[in-house]
Backbone:
C-alpha cells in the first residue's frame, strides 16, 4: 500500500478552502518580500535627511550618513549582480561609463592612488543610489511603498525648516554641531576652516536649512516631492505629510526651490488639463519648450542659460554672480574639455572669492570633463523619455504615478542648471532616475501589473480599483 496521501480534490468544499488558504499565504509571502525589498532604498533616503555633521573621517575620506549607508549596501548590490537579480540595460552602461570617466579624470589630475580614492568614492556615491533603485523599486507599487514609509521623515524635515524660518534661528544644525562637531569648509578639495554663521534673510523670513547642508538643497529636495505625493494615488496621512513637506520648501527662500515648486505645479496642472482636453499632449509641450529655447538662445544676450541664471532668481546680485560663474566656468571647460581640473578652483577674477559653482552640469564638466556632464544629463533625460513612453500604455492610477515620477525627475534636472546637487541630493536624483528606468522598462516588457492589484498597501493609501484578489491579499496582511 502506498503511503503517499491522495491528491486534494479542489472541487470538494474542503479542497477549495485549502487551495484558497494556500493562495492567500502565497500572496502574503510575496507581499512581505516586496515590502522587505524596498528597505535598502528607504535606509539611504532617511540617511539623506540626517545632518552632514554626522560623519566619519577615515584618512581624509569623509563618510557622511548617506555615504555610510550606500557603501554598506555595496555587498548587497554585488551579490544581486552576480546572482542575476539585476537585468542589465543600456542606461546602466551610461552610469557605469560616467563613473569610470570620473575615476579616470581624478587619476589624471591627482595621480593613480589619490585619483582612485577620490574618483572612486564620488563615482560610487552616484552609482549606488541608481542601482539600489534599479533593484528595489521595480513597479509603481514599490514606489508608493517607499513614499509611504518616507513621508514621516519628510514631514519632520519640512517642519524643522518651517520652525527655523518662523523663529529666525537655526535649530537642527547647532544641535548636530554640539554632538558631532562643526563642518569643515573646503577650498580646492582641502579643508581650510569651518562653516561660519549661515543665517540669511529674504522677504522678512530667515532662510531655513533644517537638516540639509544649505537652504537651496533642502528647498529643492522637498520641492521635488510635490508631484510624487500630490499627483500619485496615495491617500490619507502619507499624502498630506508629503505635500506639507513640499510646501515647506518655500521657507528655504531659494529661487531654485520656489521655481522648482512652481514648475511642479505647472506640470501637474497641465497634466490634469491635457487629460480632459483633446489635442493636448506632453509632446506639444516639448515642441513649444524647444521653440521657446531656440528663440531665447538667438534673441537674448548670452543665450538661454544666462536668462535662467540671471533673471529666475529672488536676488538680482546672486543672478549676476551666477552669470559670471557660467562665463568663467565655461572658459575652464573649453581649456580642459576631456578630464576637467578636479577640485582645483577655476580661473576667475580675484574679487570672486568663492570657487563654488551653482550649476550641477557645469560643475561636472569643470571637475571631470564634458563627457561626465553629458552622460549624467543624458541618463536623466532618458528616464523621463522612458517614463513618458510607458505612461502611454498605462491608464488610471498607474499612469498618474509614472507621470508624477517623470515630473519630479524633470524638476531636479532643470533646476540643476542653477544648483549644484551636493549633500545627498545627487543620490536622490540617481534614485529617481534608477527607479524610472526600471519601472518604464518592466512596463514595456509587460512584467508588472497595475497599482492596487494585490498591493500590500492598506486600501486607504490609494484609490486604485480593488479587485477581489487584491482585497483578499490586503485582508490577509492585516490579520
Residues:
Amino acid at each position: 500500500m502506498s503511503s503517499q496521501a491522495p491528491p486534494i480534490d479542489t472541487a470538494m468544499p474542503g479542497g477549495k478552502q485549502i487551495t484558497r488558504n494556500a493562495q492567500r499565504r502565497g500572496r502574503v509571502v510575496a507581499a512581505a518580500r516586496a515590502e522587505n525589498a524596498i528597505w535598502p532604498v528607504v535606509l539611504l533616503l532617511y540617511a539623506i535627511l540626517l545632518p552632514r555633521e554626522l560623519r566619519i573621517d577615515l584618512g581624509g575620506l569623509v563618510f557622511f550618513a548617506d555615504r555610510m549607508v550606500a557603501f554598506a549596501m555595496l555587498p548587497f548590490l554585488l551579490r544581486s549582480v552576480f546572482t542575476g537579480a539585476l537585468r542589465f540595460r543600456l542606461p546602466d552602461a551610461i552610469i557605469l561609463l560616467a563613473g569610470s570617466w570620473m575615476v579616470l579624470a581624478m587619476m589624471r589630475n591627482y595621480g593613480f592612488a589619490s585619483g582612485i580614492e577620490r574618483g572612486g568614492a564620488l563615482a560610487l556615491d552616484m552609482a549606488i543610489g541608481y542601482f539600489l533603485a534599479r533593484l528595489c523599486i521595480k513597479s509603481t507599487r514599490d514606489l508608493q511603498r517607499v513614499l509611504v514609509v518616507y513621508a514621516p521623515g519628510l514631514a519632520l524635515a519640512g517642519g524643522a525648516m518651517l520652525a527655523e524660518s518662523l523663529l529666525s534661528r537655526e535649530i537642527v544644525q547647532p544641535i548636530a554641531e554640539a554632538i558631532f562637531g562643526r563642518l569643515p569648509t573646503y577650498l580646492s578639495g582641502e579643508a581650510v576652516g569651518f562653516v561660519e554663521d549661515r543665517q540669511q534673510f529674504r522677504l522678512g523670513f530667515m532662510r531655513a536649512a533644517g537638516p540639509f547642508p544649505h537652504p537651496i538643497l533642502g528647498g529643492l529636495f522637498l520641492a521635488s516631492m510635490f508631484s510624487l505625493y500630490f499627483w500619485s494615488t496615495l491617500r490619507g496621512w502619507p499624502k498630506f505629510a508629503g505635500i506639507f513637506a513640499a510646501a515647506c520648501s518655500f521657507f528655504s527662500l531659494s529661487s531654485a526651490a520656489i521655481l522648482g515648486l512652481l514648475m511642479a505645479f505647472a506640470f501637474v496642472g497641465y497634466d490634469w488639463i491635457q487629460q480632459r482636453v483633446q489635442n493636448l499632449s506632453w509632446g506639444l509641450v516639448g515642441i513649444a519648450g524647444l521653440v521657446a529655447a531656440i528663440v531665447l538662445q538667438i534673441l537674448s544676450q548670452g543665450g538661454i542659460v544666462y536668462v535662467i541664471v540671471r533673471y529666475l532668481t529672488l536676488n538680482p546680485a546672486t543672478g549676476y554672480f551666477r552669470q559670471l560663474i557660467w562665463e568663467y566656468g565655461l572658459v575652464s571647460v573649453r581649456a580642459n574639455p576631456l578630464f576637467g581640473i578636479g577640485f582645483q578652483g577655476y580661473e576667475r577674477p580675484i574679487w570672486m572669492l568663492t570657487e563654488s559653482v551653482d550649476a550641477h552640469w557645469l560643475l561636472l564638466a569643470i571637475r571631470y570633463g564634458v563627457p561626465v556632464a553629458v552622460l549624467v544629463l543624458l541618463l536623466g533625460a532618458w528616464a523621463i523619455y522612458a517614463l513618458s513612453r510607458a505612461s502611454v500604455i498605462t491608464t488610471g492610477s498607474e499612469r498618474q504615478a509614472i507621470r508624477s515620477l517623470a515630473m519630479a525627475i524633470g524638476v531636479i534636472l532643470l533646476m540643476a542648471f542653477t544648483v549644484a546637487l551636493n549633500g545627498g541630493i545627487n543620490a536622490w536624483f540617481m534614485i529617481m532616475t534608477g527607479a524610472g528606468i526600471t519601472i518604464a522598462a518592466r512596463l514595456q516588457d509587460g512584467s508588472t501589473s497595475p497599482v492596487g492589484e494585490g498591493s500590500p498597501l492598506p486600501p486607504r493609501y490609494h484609490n486604485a480599483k480593488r479587485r477581489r484578489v487584491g482585497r483578499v491579499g490586503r485582508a490577509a496582511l492585516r490579520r
Notes: Strands lie at 55-58, 61-64, 184-187, 190-194, 201-202, 205-206.
